[in-house]
Each structure stands twice: as structure tokens, then as C-alpha cells.
Design brief:
Strand content: 15-25%
Oligomer: single chain
Strand order of the largest sheet: 12-15-16-11-10-17-18
Bound molecules: nicotinamide-adenine-dinucleotide
Shape: globular
Largest sheet: 7 strands, mixed
Number of strands: 20
């Protein structure tokens, strides 16, 4: 059974009208208490982990209505989208973790080379310890809870810092966790930069951060002070490359859905499109047709608001009116930006200088695949890359020549939904990966053991170090 929430640490975490009352002592007390609990070894048995995961499963069902209401109030996300892009994924993670935790955490025998004879070798998966999970706001439940589920499966304790931007959502996360888990196992610290900074001063055994590249650097530097291992799930500009031979109708359909889902506030949304010049006009028309057909509008429950005013103004400023092919309208009072397509955009435009993270799709034509690939490669390695083509050579060139975190052929975004695919970035788009077993691995140390009996000891390594012995050692080792 999960413990009922106790008062530890929460006395100093009162939240009052957006003001978080925290000090370094609170953070230190939270981490110290979790570490003391972790050191008792209580989190190691599979039975304990299963209790936590099952309690999580039940809480997620019980809190579903509250979770959906909070996110709808914060930025207009519908229950359909909250379930399909967040809660269903978490339920799947929990189901898989419950089914696999015993297998993943069992010792594994590995072969022993003859040079080590007699011996047996094995690997002990060992939880790293006290984990700090920091979530981003754009899929707040998935990005906070999925790493937490992986950490609990691995036998870690968890301090979760959800994003402060969707305030009601952050409260709903805190309320679920505080009502379900003992704080020495899993607790939530709400807050913004000040609270995160105070948390990062503490020594954790693992930091799992989802967010922007600049804050990723801050987290990495803080982790370096204690040599804490990190997983950094960051962002960047993810390209979609559309070749002339693609299935145009299907390409437009899938790209439009992937781009305007969550109003473009998706880390792996196609940020921009490189389209072969010969189909540029047809592609733009097909995209326009799909936007109309898919009816992305708040009233249709398939569109969301921009999360806050700062981001609304930032995204709006990236739309040059003279380059709008479709959309471009904004409703400041409701923080809404129409699904927008930009044509005639160049690499020098502001919209190509930063991750858009909004419903604006620049379309840039290319005439030669070499230069399109070179242009992508000249920029930081993206989190995702998508190629739309029916030509195997083009597909293989994109997959082999461009370095990126993950992606799809003839689709976008959906690689995230396959738990058998490790999810993460490369270069500036991130360090490490998670989902499925890869998530368990992110919170686990694999302790390597060579176990030798004492009934026999080969003499070759001992003096005298004769040429004859060296010859034998070479034979055994090389
Ligand atoms: P963000 O980096 O602004 O915030 C993430 C977290 O960092 C929040 O919890 C926030 O409170 C904290 N934070 C913000 N400023 C800080 C500072 N100066 N010092 C310490 N902590 C600080 O990111 P965001 O706006 O929440 O999310 C958008 C970004 O996240 C985009 O770049 C997007 O691509 C990326 N992202 C990546 C993934 C992924 O899985 N790779 C998923 C979602 C979002």
C-alpha cells in the first residue's frame, strides 16, 4: 500500500496566491529525508515498487477529472487531447512497468571469458538513489509523471518540480502526489526559478530535466558540482523534409495534425518544412486544405491556447505579415494564434533563428537534396527529423546523413508513442533517453560483478614474468 501523505517538508511549501514559501532548509530536509529512507533499502524490493506503481495507477484514475479540468482551465486543452496525449500514455507506462519491473531489476548473468576462469559474471541493476525530475509545461502530466514512473520502477525516490506556468495543473499534480505517496518516496516541490535554483543546490543522485536548451545548460552546470548524472530532454528546431515523390495528400494530412496539435507547443512538432521546389505550390495548397479540413479551433476542442502572454507575444512576433500564406490571425484576449503557414521564408528570418513552439509553419523550398541536408546539418542537431518520400534512397540519405534524436518516415511525432523506441535528443537537443526499459535504465546503475571461487588460482599472472607465461597470457587474452 502506498503511504498516506505525511506532513514532512510540506509545512514550508505552502502556496499562497502564486507565492511559494520555501527556503534552502526545506529543500535540504526533503532531500535528506528521502536519502535516509532510500538508504534503508526499503525501495529495493520489487514488492515495494509494485505498491507504488499500483497506487499511482489508481490515483491517476481517481484524479482524472481534476487533472483534465485543471489543464483545460490553464490553456484550454480538451479532455480528448489530455487523455490521448498524456494520461493514456501514463497508464500504458504504468502497466508496462508493473509487468516488467521484476524482469528489468533482476540480476543478469553475462559470459565470462576463459582468461577469468574459474568465475561467473553478472550485472546487478541498482537504483541510483534520490532523483530530481523537472517537467516542462507543454505536456505537463506526461512530462512530469513519465520520468517519475521510470524512477519509481527503478527503485529511486523522487522529488518532482512541475512547471509553474500552468498553475492549476501544477497544483493538480502536487495534490495527486501528496494524496498518494509518502513524501520520503515521492514528493512535489512547486515553484519557479527561485525554487528550482534552491533545489539544484542540493545533491541528487540523478537529475532528469525536460525543458529548453538554455535552462538545460543551467541544470547541467548545477549537476556538475556534485557529478550527478543527468538526462536532459531538450528542444530545438525539428525539420520535416518533403520530397517531390511523397504521397502529397497523406503528407499534408499528417504534417498538419502533428504541427497544430497542442497549437504547435510540442517539443517534437515539425518546426519547419523543407519542400522540394517542384511541388511547393501543391504542397502549400494541400496544407491549407488540411488545416481547414481538420478544423483546428478552440471551439472544436482540438486546439489549445498559447500557455501565457509572454509566449503569445513571442510567437506572434515571429509572424512576418508579408510572408503569411495562410492564417496569421491572433486573439490576444484568448491567447490564440491561428494555424499559420509562412511561405517565402529564408534562413535569415527571425522565425528560423529560434524554436517556434507555436502554430506557425515556415515552408522553405529546396531544389537539391544535398543542399537541403547540408542546411539542416549546419544547425544544432535537432530533437526530431521527419522525411516524407516514397524513394528509398532519399529516405536512407536523410536517416544516415543527418544526426537527430529520433523521428519518423512519412509521419511526424508518433515515434514518441512507441515505448520500444528510446526517446531523447543528441547534441544540443539532449543527453540520454527514456520510455519503456530505457526509462528504467536512466534511473539505474548497472553494477558489474566478477565472482570467483577459491578452489583454484591460475599462476600465470604471478612472478616470475617469463616470456613463456606472457605467451600463454597473450593466447588467453588477445
Ligand atoms: P523551460 O526550460 O523554460 O522550463 C523547464 C523547467 O525549468 C521548469 O520547471 C521551470 O520552472 C524551470 N526553469 C525555468 N527557468 C529556469 C532557470 N533560470 N533556472 C532553473 N530552472 C528554471 O522550458 P518550458 O518552457 O517549460 O518548455 C519548453 C521547452 O522545453 C522547449 O524548448 C521544448 O522543446 C522543450 N521540451 C522538450 C521535451 C523533450 O522531451 N525533449 C518535451 C517538452 C518540451
Amino acid at each position: 500500500m502506498a503511504h498516506p501523505a505525511k506532513s514532512l517538508g510540506h509545512g514550508g511549501l505552502a502556496r499562497c496566491d502564486g507565492i511559494y514559501d520555501l527556503d534552502a532548509m526545506d529543500m535540504n530536509a526533503i532531500v535528506s529525508t528521502q536519502r535516509a529512507f532510500f538508504e534503508t533499502g526499503a525501495t529495493r524490493p520489487v514488492a515495494f515498487r509494485l505498491q507504488q506503481l499500483k497506487a499511482f495507477q489508481q490515483a491517476l484514475r481517481e484524479h482524472e477529472e481534476r487533472l483534465c479540468a485543471a489543464i483545460r482551465e490553464d490553456f484550454g486543452k480538451s479532455t480528448f487531447d489530455t487523455v490521448t496525449t498524456e494520461l493514456a500514455i501514463l497508464h500504458h507506462d504504468l502497466k508496462e512497468s508493473i509487468a516488467k519491473v521484476a524482469k528489468w531489476s533482476a540480476r543478469k548473468r553475462v559470459p565470462t571469458p576463459l582468461a577469468n576462469f574459474p568465475a561467473r559474471s553478472f550485472v546487478i541493476p541498482e537504483p541510483l538513489g534520490v532523483a530530481l525530475v523537472m517537467g516542462a509545461w507543454n505536456y505537463p502530466y506526461q512530462l512530469s509523471f513519465a520520468p517519475a514512473i521510470a524512477a519509481l520502477t527503478a527503485g529511486c525516490t523522487v522529488v518532482l518540480k512541475p512547471s509553474e506556468l500552468p498553475a492549476r495543473t501544477s497544483q493538480a499534480i502536487a495534490s495527486l502526489v501528496r494524496g498518494t505517496f509518502a513524501p520520503e518516496v515521492f514528493t512535489v516541490v512547486e515553484g519557479g526559478v527561485a525554487e528550482t535554483t534552491a533545489l539544484l543546490a542540493e545533491r541528487f543522485d540523478k537529475i532528469f530535466f525536460t525543458g529548453s536548451v538554455p535552462v538545460g545548460r543551467v541544470v547541467y552546470q548545477a549537476a556538475a558540482r556534485h557529478l550527478t548524472p543527468v538526462t536532459l530532454e531538450l528542444g530545438g528546431k525539428s525539420p520535416a523534409l518533403v520530397a517531390a515523390d511523397c504521397n502529397l495528400a497523406m503528407t499534408a494530412r499528417r504534417l498538419v495534425w502533428a504541427k497544430y496539435l497542442n497549437a504547435g507547443q510540442t517539443c517534437i512538432a515539425p518546426d519547419y518544412v523543407l519542400v522540394e521546389d517542384s511541388i511547393r505550390e501543391a504542397f502549400l495548397e494541400a496544407v491549407k486544405g488540411e488545416i481547414v479540413r481538420q478544423k483546428f479551433r478552440l471551439e472544436n476542442d482540438n486546439y489549445v491556447q498559447i500557455v501565457n502572454e509572454r509566449n503569445f507575444r513571442r510567437v506572434r512576433a515571429l509572424i512576418p505579415p508579408e510572408k503569411v500564406f495562410f492564417g496569421g490571425g491572433c486573439d490576444e484576449a484568448r491567447r490564440l494564434i491561428e494555424p499559420t503557414v509562412l511561405a517565402g521564408v529564408g534562413w535569415e528570418d527571425a522565425v528560423m533563428q529560434e524554436e517556434i513552439f507555436g502554430p506557425v509553419l515556415p515552408v522553405i523550398p529546396f531544389t537539391d537534396l544535398d543542399s537541403a541536408i547540408a542546411q539542416v546539418k549546419a544547425r544544432p542537431r535537432p530533437l526530431s527529423c521527419y522525411v516524407f518520400t516514397t524513394n528509398a534512397e532519399i529516405r536512407e540519405r536523410v536517416l544516415n546523413e543527418i544526426s537527430f534524436g529520433g523521428g519518423c518516415v512519412n509521419d511526424a511525432i508518433l515515434h514518441v508513442s512507441n515505448p520500444h523506441l528510446p526517446f531523447g535528443g543528441v547534441g544540443e537537443s539532449g543527453i540520454g533517453a527514456y520510455h519503456g526499459e530505457e526509462g528504467f535504465r536512466a534511473f539505474t546503475h548497472f553494477k558489474a560483478i566478477l565472482d570467483k571461487p577459491t578452489w583454484f588460482e591460475p599462476f600465470l599472472k604471478y612472478a616470475p614474468h617469463t616470456p613463456q607465461r606472457l605467451k600463454w597470457i597473450r593466447r588467453l587474452m588477445e
